[in-house]
Amino acid sequence: MEHSKDQPTDVIVVGAGAAGLYAAIHAGRAGAKTLALDGARRLGAKILVAGGGRCNVTHHAVDEKAYAGASPNAIRKVLRRHGVAETVAFFEEQGVELKREETGKLFPTTDRSRTVLDALLAAAARAGVEIRFPRRVERIERRGDDGFVVSGEWGSAFGRRIVIATGGMALPQSGSDGTGYDFARQFGHTTTEHIKPALVPLILPGGHPLRDLSGIAVPASLTVHGGTGRKLKTFTNSLLFTHFGLSGPCALDISRHWRASLIADRGTSLVMNLLPEFNEQSLDAALLADAGATVLTHLREHLPERLVRALGEAAELDTTARVANLSRDRRRALVRLCTAWQLPIEGDRGFGHAEVTMGGVPLKEIRLETMESRLCPGLHLIGEVLDVDGRIGGFNFQWAWASGYVAGRALGVD
Fold it and tell me: Measured between alpha carbons, how far is residue 96 from residues 3, 112, 254 in Å?
């Protein structure tokens, strides 16, 4: 495939994932001759694996408080340009009906990610978007004020404007290998000092008792504490114990905040409350009020038996003993483990298991009304390559739709 300077494309989108496809669709609808290039052999890998293969398209309520990275005000300016209602309407136009689950997540009623990807590809075709893959872009060159030449082993293409939608570094097997950061830096942009995995499972030491509870999931709270003991961030959600440590929504949501705090303060700690409805004082009082019951009988009303027995071992007590027969110190040790167990996190499982990237190009370097670079006219950056990462639950897809829409509409031909 060769596009010459004599026959330029209005817009070249580098990366045909969620944000890139959405931008290409809206650029095409706005009259721009649009070419989308992607290096993957199969399009939409992240879309297809999202939500356990069901694709959590968005969340029923989205605002800037669900995100980290850039300033909340900057994130809000983009989100309000294309909100949840607009996303739902777009997919309805494509024949994709979304359903809301108890968690607030919106999934296609088919429960198939392929439904979402097929709808995006069909919308792109109707908008006149040309999609080519695998076409890995290895170089981008500025050609004066005329536009940009992108090239790779496949050849080259010329576009008056270009959109970087390459993603961050999460799930590198999908093609997100950080190349977008290199392209951004090439045109004068900076990236945050730290680029790390986010929404990623956490690792406990090999001998930690929780690693023996693989497969057990419970509602729990995880709290990041700074070196002074101050609570920095708390999430309460389902927590899954695994053979390596912690996963599930609660662990994934807290992971980037744990990492960010650790970068700033080596004294950071992560504390788990297995009974979020209790604190140390209220649980101790509840145990004393049921002093005739065994520890196992009392806690089994709230927690799986295997977990209760593990708590007993960690607290060095017999869970078949009656609460009344426990020493004050043993009872207090049990209460502390139930409600404030400090976890010695060794690290996370890395980009290969992360759902999104923490860090990227700062939004202060982007014109938020168009997603155009403040440093290089004609260059637009969207999606995960920017310093924005959201909670689990469809928030990162909503950022992709919103930033893609803003860029796409701005790329229309007058």
Answer: 34, 11, 32
How many C-beta atoms surround the C-beta of residue 231 within 10 A? Answer: 10
Domain count across the chain:
2
Same structural domain for residues 90 and 24? yes
For residue range 250-266, what is the model confidence (pLDDT) as tens digits?
999 999 999 999 999 88
Picking from 186, 146, 144, the residue whose alpha carbon sits closest to that of residue 166 is 186
Q: How far apart are CA 209 and CA 299, in angstroms?
A: 18
Q: Are 275 and 339 in contact (CB under 8 A)?
A: yes
- With cut-offs at 50, 70 and 90, classify the pLDDT of residue 4: very low
Structural domain of residue 54, as residue ranges?
9-195+354-410
Round to whole Å and give the CA distance between 149 and 96: 36
For residues 158 and 188, membership in a common domain is answered with: yes
Domain shared by 141 and 42, yes or no:
yes
Gap between the Cα atoms of 49 and 114, Å rounded: 9
Contact (CB, 8 A) for 75 and 396: no
CB 386, CB 403: distance < 8 Å:
yes
99: its two tokens? 């359903």
